[in-house]
Amino acid sequence: MSVDRISTTLVHKVRPPGTLGNSKSPVLILLHGRGTNEDDLLGLVDFLDPRFFVVSARAPYRFDEGSGGYTWYGVQEVGKPDPQQFRDAYDRLTQFIEDVKTGYPVDPGRVFLLGFSMGSIMSLAVALTRPNAVRGIVAHSGYVPENTSLEFLWDQLGSLSVFVAHGLHDPIIPVEMARRVQELLSKTGADLTYKEYPIPHTIS
User: Over its length of 204 residues, how does the chain's per-residue pLDDT go in tens digits?
Assistant: First the structure.
């Protein structure tokens, strides 16, 4: 199954499902962390449900430090995104999700996000402000972006599934920030699964 890539707000790569059912496929959108690109999380695809139509997005801003790559926004300090870049990335991502729903042969009612680090923060940003846009998210090694202009719909998360994972030995985003995610979401109607692993800032 070959698929032509749509024109939208974010550069991306597509991996069609390994198995085709009689209905449209659920879609999984991968959101990478700071300093990498849309290839970074594609290595996970072989370990995931083959029914997923996978779309891996590239963050919108060049990351010039270290080995290059891309970033979703500039960082003033951990927990404080650059306001203008964060808002721009958020707007691009929300439009991207809508374009994926209409432009690819996927089920618009079964959209899932899987984000790592900064991609996890973006996943939470979308899910908590537009819970009807996605069915569920995997938020790995991130946090809820509370220090932004976003308004979270805490009382409208009843249809949302959230899997939060974090490394106990994360030197970049402390595990306490993940426990804050757990604290916030446990007070809502979201279906929350929370896991800590004996790892640093990585996916085990």
Answer: 678 899 999 999 999 998 877 789 999 999 999 999 999 999 999 999 999 999 999 999 999 766 679 999 998 777 789 999 999 999 999 999 999 999 999 999 999 999 999 999 999 999 999 999 999 999 999 999 998 999 999 999 999 999 999 999 999 999 999 999 999 999 999 999 999 999 999 998
Hey, what long-range contacts does 66-74 have (CB within 8 A, 24 or more apart)? 66/35, 67/35, 68/35, 69/34, 69/35, 69/36, 69/37, 70/32, 70/35, 70/36, 70/37, 71/34, 71/35, 71/118, 72/31, 72/34, 72/118, 72/119, 72/121, 72/122, 73/118
